[in-house]
Amino acid sequence: MPKISTSDGVRLNYLESGDARGRPVLLVAGFKAAATSWRPQLASLEKAGHRVLALDRRGHGSSDIGPGGGHTMERHGADIGDAIRLLGLQDATVVGQSMGGNSIWALLSQDGSAGIRDVVIIDQTPKMLNSDDWPYGFYDYDATNATTFFAESIPNPGRHSLASKGPVRVARLLRGMDLKAAKIPFTPAELELLNDHASRDWRPAVATSPVPALFVAGRESDFWPSEHAAASAALSPLASSVVIDEAGHATNIEQPKAVNEALLAWLSR
Q1: Count of domains in the chain?
Q2: 62: containing domain
Q3: How many CA atoms lie within 13 A of 186 on its CB side?
Q4: In the prediction, which pLDDT does 27 show?
Q5: How far from chain centre, in Å, is Cα 96?
Q6: 30-49 burial, b for 16+ CB within 10 Å, e for fewer?
Q7: Each residue's pLDDT tens digit, 74-129
Q8: Helices 73-86 and 188-199, axial angle in degrees (round to 10)
Q9: pLDDT mean over 48-62
């Protein structure tokens, strides 16, 4: 498997396919998800002539976990920037699902827009903590439980059961996700990263981003109301949004055709 070394010496795995001369699309998966979770998007992107790359973030998939102190959103953002630089990407669309999306904002907040044409965020609110001015965070997560909510794992808000997804969507999830990697209890490094992720507010990064953004939400997201996409897009004149029907948090896996159509339409602008 090809690997790159980040600026702090951590080896990251990545997958590459498609036309090496095509405009690049860099795919960044969410918490505890591997690069292989993007399989439902690969054929469509390859057929459209893109150079397609999927990154295993540190501590994810086949990448190294790295030293202590590296389990922050800033470091994960810097890793994306390192990947763009080391792989020679120019005019790239960077697509992030879940925490992978906020890792992109972490990069852009560090003036890391070099090589990036635009970004796509799939079912990730820029602010997890609910507040009076942002009711689009993780269900039931607010100031009363801010320090304990993610202490041991990701709580199940109980809004959409697995059974409610139906056999087709469940089968897609089983094929698309690494169930061993999703096991609990989480490691100390994973909890450190999760809690840093949960406490952050990336709305200023969205508002000041120099690159266009598309926010994609699953209508039946397991973690937050789908209105987060439109609310996020409203933060920037360069942003827009779309909601995918009959899709949960793993939107790109549950409804790959609809997500691929939205992604290709965005790429062809």
Answers
A1: 1
A2: 3-267
A3: 18
A4: 98
A5: 3
A6: bbbbbbbbbebbbebbbebe
A7: 999 999 999 999 999 999 999 999 999 999 999 999 998 999 999 999 999 999 99
A8: 100
A9: 97
Query: Residues 219-237: pLDDT tens digits?
Result: 999 999 999 999 999 999 9
Give the list of residues 6+ apart from residue 241 with CB closer than 8 angstroms, or none: 214, 215, 216, 217, 229, 230, 232, 233
| CATH code, domain with 80 | 3.40.50.1820
Which uninterrupted H or E stretch holds 86? Answer: helix 73-86
Please check whether residue 112 is in contact with residue 77, taking contact to mean a CB–CB distance below 8 angstroms: yes
Partnered with residue 53 across adjacent β-strands are 16, 26
Is residue 18 left, alpha or beta, with left meaning phi > 0 and alpha meaning psi from -120 to 50? left
Q: How far, in Å, CA of 216 to CA of 212, rounded?
A: 13
Three-state SS string across 189-228, please? Answer: HHHHHHHHHHHCECHHHHHHCCCCEEEEEECCCCCCCCCH
Q: What distance lies between CA 86 and its chain's CA centroid?
A: 21
Beta bridge partners of 131: 134
Tell me what pLDDT residue 77 has: 98
